[in-house]
């Protein structure tokens, strides 16, 4: 406001002096021009000081920022400030790591969920419906949280647990189960923990009908078990799609698989065990001995004649 008033004053003053130059002696005109020039210089100094102060304030308040992934339920992106608290977070902000693959390859422990949001911009999330309530006419109506009850002297106490999976649909997936006092708290806790459990899976094309050497399926048959549920992944050719139930299909799609056959055994109605069996099978894809044997076989193997 002060700068605007000074500019207006100098402009009006210069216009007035131009109108009255002819009626005044030359000495007064020179004096007035000198005063007007000093006023302009003063305005410039005030503007420069204000700009310097603004730049100092910006530098002191400047913090590393990241953009959260798009929330599909609300359809909006929001930018929040993140100050890394761990050494890994500081290295990422300083540019030492530029992708989540580099962090996973080093074996660094991720302790901040903001690290995953910072490195993966297109992170997607899925809620596995593990709960249920009796439906009309029998059956069960699936819900996002499972409610458990404990009996105390003061009455019943309820706890909600949820299962959330995150992934970028390109070989990176994470999953976690957490509990809370209400539905929202349980889902938020599961989402944060799922980001900390991020893993990189191995993809390929191990089906003899295709042999395209792509990454649309799994490279070999893999089997995993959790509780009473056994889950089997089989490579499939292009065009087959994900042949699985709806909840397993969510996890496999988040992991980036497009064509795969599945087999399940046991009490698959217990969806928590089913989801963890799927996640364990995806983990096992990277626990193969082929690469280890190939790296150790530097010496020629003796052949008996």
Short description:
The protein has helices spanning 2-20, 26-61, 87-93, 100-106, 113-119, 183-196, 246-254, 271-284, 290-296, and strands at residues 65-67, 79-81, 124-128, 131-134, 140-143, 145-152, 155-167, 172-180, 199-200, 222-226, 229-235, 242-243, 260-265. It is α+β, with helices and mostly antiparallel strands.
> What would CATH call the architecture of the largest domain?
2-Layer Sandwich
Shape: flat
Distance between the termini: 98 Å
Mean pLDDT: 78
Radius of gyration: 33 Å
**Helix run count:** 9
Q: What is the count of β-strands?
A: 13
Low-confidence stretches: 1-7, 57-79, 292-303
CATH class of the largest domain: Alpha Beta
Relative strand content: 15-25%
Question: Major beta sheet, specifics?
Answer: 5 strands, antiparallel
Query: Helical residue percent?
Result: 25-40%
- For the record, the count of structural domains works out to 3
Describe this protein's structure.
Helix 1 (2-20) runs antiparallel to helix 2, helix 5 (113-119) packs across helix 6 and helix 7 packs parallel to helix 8. This protein is flat. It is of the alpha+beta class and 305 residues long. It has helices at 2-20, 26-61, 87-93, 100-106, 113-119, 183-196, 246-254, 271-284, 290-296; strands at 65-67, 79-81, 124-128, 131-134, 140-143, 145-152, 155-167, 172-180, 199-200, 222-226, 229-235, 242-243, 260-265.
């Amino acid at each position: 406001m002060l700068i605007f008033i000074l500019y207006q004053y100098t402009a009006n003053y210069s216009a007035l002096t131009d109108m009255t130059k002819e009626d005044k002696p030359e000495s007064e005109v020179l004096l007035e021009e000198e005063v007007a020039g000093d006023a302009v210089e003063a305005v410039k100094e005030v503007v420069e000081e204000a700009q310097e102060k603004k730049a100092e304030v910006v530098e002191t308040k400047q913090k590393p920022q990241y953009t959260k992934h798009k929330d599909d339920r609300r359809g909006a992106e929001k930018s929040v400030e993140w100050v890394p608290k761990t050494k890994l977070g500081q290295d990422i902000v300083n540019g030492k790591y530029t992708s989540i693959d580099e962090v996973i390859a080093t074996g660094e422990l991720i302790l901040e969920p903001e690290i995953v949001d910072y490195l993966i911009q297109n992170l997607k999330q899925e809620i596995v419906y593990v709960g249920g309530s009796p439906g009309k006419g029998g059956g069960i109506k699936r819900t996002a949280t499972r409610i458990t009850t404990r009996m105390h002297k003061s009455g019943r106490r309820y706890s909600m647990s949820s299962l959330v999976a995150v992934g970028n649909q390109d070989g990176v997936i994470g999953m976690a189960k957490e509990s809370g006092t209400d539905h929202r708290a349980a889902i938020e806790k599961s989402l944060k923990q799922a980001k900390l459990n991020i893993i990189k899976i191995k993809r390929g094309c191990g089906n003899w009908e295709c042999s395209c050497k792509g990454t649309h399926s799994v490279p070999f048959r893999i089997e995993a078990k959790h509780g009473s549920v056994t889950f089997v992944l089989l490579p499939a050719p292009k065009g087959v799609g994900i042949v699985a139930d709806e909840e397993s299909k969510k996890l496999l799609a988040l992991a980036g698989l497009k064509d795969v056959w599945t087999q399940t055994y046991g009490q698959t109605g217990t969806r928590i065990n089913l989801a963890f069996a799927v996640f364990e099978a995806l983990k096992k894809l990277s626990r193969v001995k082929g690469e280890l044997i190939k790296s150790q076989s530097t010496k020629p193997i003796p052949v008996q004649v």
